[in-house]
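Structure representation:
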Amino acid sequence: MNILYLDTSQNLLITGVLKGAENFSRSVDAGKNGHTRILMGEIDAVLSRAGLAVRDLDAVAAVTGPGSFTGIRIGAATAAALSRGTGAKKIAVTEFEIIAYHRERVTAAVEAGRGNLYAAECEGGRVVATRFIPSEERGGEVFVFEPAGDRAATLAEIAAEKAAKGMFATAFEPFYMRKSQAERAQDEV
């Protein structure tokens, strides 16, 4: 199975292709606003390295969040367009799944800006419960922010496992744990 995977939820842009058992990946620092500008070029580059065309894809995997609101939207829209254009199946992966992968029990966390956190209690790599933690309530709890192994390789493994189990999504729905800053400001008016 040929699976394109991408992660635009953080500054580090990850694109990769699983071509059977072979994994071709690229990681580029896109900064806060570079995903739109470089994403399609990175996808073309990784497909070229794998010797594949877009039409050869069987599935597209994307990290749906939590993370950068704009980055998540860019990744979800791109993955959805590629899936729709090629008929490839959709595989949604959360940032929490990446952090919890190969860990029995962990509190996975993603920075939410201004010292706040998005957190998830995870068991056996699966998310059990999620919560938003304001900076003033962080306390002494132990959080894990990074995966146990290489981020791109972990995303590829999760995508392959989900494909093998037939765990396909009907849509790439962004996983936001709260409203964006602009939406919160509008609510205050």
Notes: The longest strand covers residues 12-19. Residues 16 and 46 are 6 Å apart (CA to CA).
